[in-house]
Amino acid sequence: MPNFIYTTFRSTSDHEKFRMVFLVNEKIHDIRVRELVQRSLMILLSEADVQAKDASRLLFGGKKLVYEAYDNVISVPPDLLNAVILYIKAGSNPSRDMERCC
After folding, report:
1. How do strand 18-21 and strand 4-7 relate by DSSP bridges?
2. Backbone phi, psi, residue 75, to 5°
3. d(CA 34, CA 42)
4. SS3 76
5. Is pTM, for the whole model, over 0.85?
6. Half-sphere exposure of residue 24, counting CA atoms within 13 Å on the CB side?
7. Model confidence over 12-64: pLDDT tens digits?
8. What values do phi and psi take at 3, rounded to 5?
9. According to DSSP H, which parts of the chain are helical?
10. What are phi and psi of 6, to 5 degrees?
């Protein structure tokens, strides 16, 4: 679960757009771990905007806070990785999807 979710400036009632913010349980200093977290979240949240995964991208505020649970924290190993593995195993082609993930 994310820490909070907010609507973007371009969100409309006809086409809602929002951002989800996650807090991990430790500082990430290695870009490879950052990429692993990003890739894992993109797999689990399959409707996510694939254009918004660049580490250098600046994200601005939004219009409205729609969800908040500031105590939510995810741990990369094991929680996030286990969730990805379970998600892939439940899919139609786990071998292919695991290879794409790795």
Report:
1. antiparallel
2. -105, 130
3. 12
4. helix
5. no
6. 18
7. 999 999 999 999 999 999 999 999 999 999 999 988 888 888 888 888 889 99
8. -75, -45
9. 31-44, 81-89, 94-101
10. -140, 150
End-to-end CA distance of the chain: 23
In the block, tokens 């105590």 appear at 71
Report the distance separating Cα 48 and Cα 99, nearest Å.
20
Nearest to 18 by CA among 4, 28, 32, 30: 4
Residue 95 has pLDDT above 90, yes or no: yes
- DSSP 3-state of 59: coil
Between CA 99 and CA 23 the distance in angstroms is 27
Q: Which residue has the tokens 């994310």?
A: 2
Q: In the beta sheet, which residues pair with residue 102?
A: none
**Which is it for strands 18-21 and 65-68: parallel, antiparallel or unpaired?**
unpaired
